[in-house]
Structures are given as structure tokens and as C-alpha cells.
From TrEMBL:
Transmembrane segments: none
GO cellular component: Cul8-RING ubiquitin ligase complex; nucleus
Ranges annotated as biased composition (Acidic residues): 594-604
Domain BRCT: 9-107, 107-198, 347-419
Source species: Lojkania enalia
Top-rank lineage group of the source organism: Eukaryota
Name of the protein described by the UniProt record: BRCT domain-containing protein
Amino acid sequence: MEDTTMLDGSQPLFADLTFTIIPTSLSDRVQKQLSEDISTNGGTIMPFDALNGRIEHLTKITHIISATSDFPDYHRALDLFIHVVKPAWVDACLKVGKAKNPRAYSPDPALFMSEVVLCCADIPEGDREAIEGGVIALGGQYTQGLSKMVTHLVALDMNNDRCQLAKSKKLRCAIVLPHWFDDCLKVGRRISERPYTLPNPEILDVQAGAIPPTRTSLQIREASNPEPTHEPSHTTPDAHLEPTRSIKAFEGKKIKLAEDLGLSDGLHCVIQDLIRAGGGEVTSKVDEAQIYVCNYREGADYIKASQENKDVGNLSWLYYLIAHDTWTNPMRRMMHYPRPRDGIPGFKTYKISISSYTGEARVYLENLVKATGAEFTKTFKQDNTHLITAHRQSEKCEAAQEWNVHVVNHLWLEESYARCKEQTLTDCRYNYFPARTNLGEVLGQTELNRDAVEKNFFSKNRKLKSIEAAIQQDNVPESSNLRSRVHSDPVARSSPLAEKTKRTRIVAEVVTPVAPRHIDGKENQTPGTTGSRGAKDRALLKLHNAAPDIAKFEKEMKRKGGVIHGGRREREPEVKDKIKGRESTASKRSIDEVYGEEEATEDELQDVATNNNKRAKKDKKVPIKFRMLVSKKDSWVGNHERECKEREKLRELGVYVNDDHKRVDLLCAPKVVRTKKFVAALASAPILVSTSYLDYAIRTGKLPPPEKHLLKDPAFEKEHGFRLDEALERAKQNKRHLLKNWTIFCTNQVTGGFDTFKEIIQANGGKVHQWEGRTTTINAAKRSIDFSDEEVSQNQEEDEGDVLYLISEPNKKEIPLWVKFRELAKKHDMIPRIVKTEWLLFVAMAQYVHWDPAWELNEEVIKKK
């Protein structure tokens, strides 16, 4: 035995520590190296029992080394406060000569930053401290210095020394904007770095195009369907030459297959042969079994197996064990665990469609929707309640916005199912979509919540006594059909969810005659002991009778915009609008069904075309002809009801009114106004029309030619020195790139607010930063005009290239910010120019770069005031 006694009298690094190495996902070479390193440094290794797949003498172990949390004793180890670490923890401890924090090397999927070593470059101190604390809290590591160990370098541009060093040394680290870390926190998952990677991050490119599809998440492969569609392969191709494959996951195990699986005799024999070939055994008694396989979370056997911490999974999970020859936790992948027969409370009233998911990801979400108890629809219709999407760049999302349908990401669905309870839609994580990111890449990373499943389906304190107590309390006779039905129904006896349902029915069926509300003229008479039970029953009866109305009201309140116009029409298509004796067509699109491009076959498309033609003839609808943005419509101000009605009328005529200045064909206003929407929309070169166009269409029910209602404002043109028609022609040339490569600064005190000018600058392709007087935070590089694009460059001729702009206000409080801004410009060898908001408004509306000394701000201007 090697001598581990230290010459300086100190203990070896791993003295008094006992380890077990989980062989899953680790090669023999890695296991051997880990064993040698631990033993050499004074640690003790207890071998893993590969035969049983469990850790013997778990309480005597201090550290478990595993590349994943997917092993049987993981949750029990956490309950016993045993450290579970990745193999990299051992190497890290040896390098520094002391034990590192185990949490930074945890395989826990909740610590999604565990493999991140992050460093910051030229980030403001407050932001840097927030990033440092966040990455450590989520299992990652933060380092002050740049080294080969760094996986992510957070920077605002590539001009700082650390980024240049990483580039010159060809370090294998991602150089990302701090927005990446912010979006990871908002989503609660580690998302792709691609859209945030410098020097040309996609999130800053307003013309980046469609969001690219993502690969199928590894978390849902072979775990997308709770009911397998094929039989497992139980022999090799040459069955007469080679024996049946041995499945290590079944070694020494007894498995019970539940009756609700509905296996045929042939398939039952196939599975039984595979289990026996792997050293396992099929049993008919749950008491003898270590593994219980069933379809639903109900029945005495399911409850007993779950309460005794046996492995409980469904047929899809069993097939996975067969295919991969290794054990995996059935709760790790939601489609590997039995489903609730009645779904998740509240979901039965929902109709859910999905968008931007393809292949196995689409199958997984479809099955998950059905498992919650909701109705899944391949087509997206106006009566859908929710749209689950990976990003917002799709036709379905536009339709959902128009129809007031909830648009959420898949995290809402997964976490509602995992926690056995509908999650609130007000949680920002469920309706946040990071720019240029396809959230399909983090699909399937949510695990079932063990505590929630136990509480709702196999809690030890939820017994048959609760049903019997309810029956006795309600004085149901022994001979009652209700009592005999409860005692004879095995599901009612064994399933807590069924017990809850039965109790509800009992209260509904046991009815006490309703007494008069007023007794002796007293409305609020205190009930006595004899009448209390009757009062309770009457209250319960009223509540039961009102339940449908309450459910509908709550459902309407969850809609965006709440309950408007005295309530919405019924969801059933046959319900007609009685007003004016005709079928309501308000707020419907010209295409009643929005098909996802990923699921529509040629036959379906042909059917849709035929059906849509019929609907078009019947409803006399037209497709969207114009997308209109309206600014300063006086009759709509303070009259939301009128605005909604007129928007619906315009939509029926083919005009879709929205607030997206990036996609606008008609810009409607009473005159030229300098609002955020109007100025930002000019960059898209829309047709300017007067509000008379809108009034004529609403009054006559016909769309007039836009040319007859063009917006004209000679007074504005004379005052500002440019013509609107010429400005729109320049906007077409610029293609929203007038301020491309510009970085403009803006204080927070400007009239209209920082966000207003941010939107205007970004609409023209520029970047904007809020100026708070920090001189080392943001890039201020000189601009170079792209003369290859002659159309845009001709509108940038007056750009001096080396001038740095700060939009501010003529206010004494702003002067300290000006001083710091001049320091920043000097540092980057640029000319500082502090300007009024008039400068940007002119450039954005005239659509060419221009300078007038009257727009400049300095201390002399303040003194003159």
C-alpha cells in the first residue's frame, strides 16, 4: 500500500472522505483514473453495486461522483446531505490543493450554469457583481482573470484588451453580450449563446431574418410518447446464432406489469423474455416487485409501489431501459412516468395549439398537452385558448394577438404538468421569448416534482377513511347506492384523485331542502346547532350550481384584456350572435384556421383551400390587404369600446390595425405628428394616409384607394425644411439601415423618455445606450460608411464618422453627464456632440443625416436660459 503520510504533518487532501463512483456515462479509463487520484490522496472508495444498481451503506459515504443525476439513489443522497459531484471536482481539488465547493460541480439540472466558468471584460461594477452572484448561485464559477479554464467571456464589444487577448490566443471561450446571462435568468434555462456572440450578435441585427430551427433536444429523444408505437427488439438479427440480449437494468430485479397497460399475449411474452434474459423476473405481486410499470397514476398497486419508493414508470420508460441497457430515473423525463387519468385540474376546458416545433419535439408537446387533459388541435382557430410557441415569428402568433389568445412558451405547460397544478400566466418566464432564440433547444429539461406528485397521488395520509368519513358526515344510509358504489369501486378506494372526485359528487347528491332566506325579518340570523348542517348544505348546493358560471367568468378573466363589452360570445361554433339577426363575424380573420407549415399535408392543404373558399363566399371576407398603424385618432382616445369595434370593422375589410412599426403598409394620422409610433414607422416607408381614409372605410364599408386620402401637411414641411414624399423615397432607399453602425447615447431625462428614442434609433438600424456617466462601459468606435450600398450612403453623406452623439436636455442637472461624456469621446478619439432631441427627430423623419448648430447643447445654452 502506498504511503500517504505527509512530511509536513498535514492530512492528505481526501482524508476522512469516502467516495462511490457511479459508472454511468464514465469510461473505464476515467473510473480508473478517479480511483487512483482519490486513493493516492487519502480517500476511501466504496465500490458501486452494479448488480443491484444501488449504493450499499449509503449513510457511510460522504461524496458520490457521477456525471449525471440520473441514478437511483440521487434524491435519497440529497436527503442525507451527501455531496454529489461531477468528476471535474476531483481534478479541480487536486489543482488548488484544497477541497473546492461541491455545489459548483453538482450534476443537479436545476443548477444549469454548473459547467460555466465566466469572466467579465469592461462591464460596469454593478452589473459585474450581479452577474458574478448569479452565475455562482446557479452552480457556475466566476473568475477575475482570463485563463484557459474560462468558458464564457462577457463583454460589450471586441475592442477591449481581454477580448483581443482571447482572440489572439485562440481561447476556446464564447465571447457574449451580458444579455445572454440576463435571458438565461429570465427563462430559467441555459439557452444558446449563438445570437449573443460577438463581434456580430444577431440580437442587434434588426434585419436578421427568420429564427433558424433547432435540433431535437436530447432530453426528449425516445421520451416523447407515453405509449410506444412499436414493439421492443428482443433478439439480434441472427436469432438462431446469438442469444437474447442481456439487460443490465433488470439484473436481480422483479417487475410487475400492470393490467392497465393493455398488453397483448404476444407482446407480454416478448417483454417477459427480455426481462428474464437480463436476469430479472416478472411477478404478479407488487409486494415482491422492485419495479412497477403502469399507464396511470391510480390503483392500490401504484400507491403502494410509490409509497415504498419502488421504481414506477410507464411502458415507454421500460422500452428505454431495454434499448439503452441502463437504468434511468422515470421522473427525469415526464413522458416516462405514468399519467394522471383526469389530467391537471383546470386544463380540461383548454384548447391548445403549438407553433414552431417540428419532428419529435412536436410529438412530445402534443402528447404532453393530452396528458394534462387539455384538447390538442393541429389547426389554430379562434376558439383556441392557448398557443405554445418557440418564438414569436410565426403567422399563428400574429393571429393569436389579433384573437386575444394566450401566447406562452413550453415552460408553462411543462411546469404545470410537473407540479400537478396550473401555473399562473402572469409569471414572466412563461411569456418571455429571448430575441433570435428558438426555445425548442431547452425542451424537456423540466423534471417531475416528486413532492407534488406524492401530495396529489400517493400521499400516505390520504386513505379510504376520508371517503368513509365524508359519507358518515353526510348521513348517507348504509343501503344507499352511493355507499355501495364507493366501496365496490377499486379506483375510488385506491386513487386519491378519484377520492376527491367522489367526495365532490357526494356533496352534490346529498341535498337538504332550501329554507327561506329571511326568518322573522332577520337576514343575518346566526344559525343554531340544528340548522348549521342544513345551511352548509344549501351553501354547497348554491356553489355547485354556480360552478359553471364561475368557471366561465374566471376563464374570461384570464384572457388578455379581461371581460370586455359585457362578456364574449360562446366558444361553440354553432352559437350565433343574436344582434341584428345575423351570424357574428367580428374579430375573425379571413382565414379561419391557421395551419402550421410543419404538420399540413397536401391533402390537408387541399381540404383547407376548399373549406376556406366556402367560408370566404359565405362570410364575404378578404385576406389582409394592408397592415395599418394609427397614431392620434381623436375619436379613439378614451373610447376603447369604439376603437375595438372599428378595428374589427376594418379587419373585415382587409385592414389589420396593429402597433408593429416594423410591419406597416399604411401609416394613418390626422396630420404629421411626432409620436413614437409615427416617427419609428417612417423608417419602413409606409404610405401616409389621413384619418379620412379610415373614416370613409368605416362609414361606407369599402376600402378607398389610399392615393385619394394621402396625408398632406404643408405647414410641417415648410417649418422643418423637407418634403414628406421625398422622405418616404429616402426611407425606401435606406431599408431601415440609415443609422447602421451608429452608437448613440441618450440620458434618462429626455422629454418623452429613453424608451421612445431607443425605439426610434433601433427602427433605423442603430444602437442606443442609456448614458449614466460611466466612461468604460460601451464601445464608441468610429463609423465607416458602406459605399457599396449607394442608395443608403447617399443619405449619409453628411455623416462625419468620428462624431459621438449624446441626446440630452437643456437642464443644469444634465451638465455632469456632459463632462463624463466628453471624457468618453476623448478616450476613443472622437468628437463629442451633445444634442437636443430635435436632431434625432429630424434625422428619423427626413431620413437623411443632417446637422444644424441650433441643435447643439452646451453650458452656454444653459446660461442663456
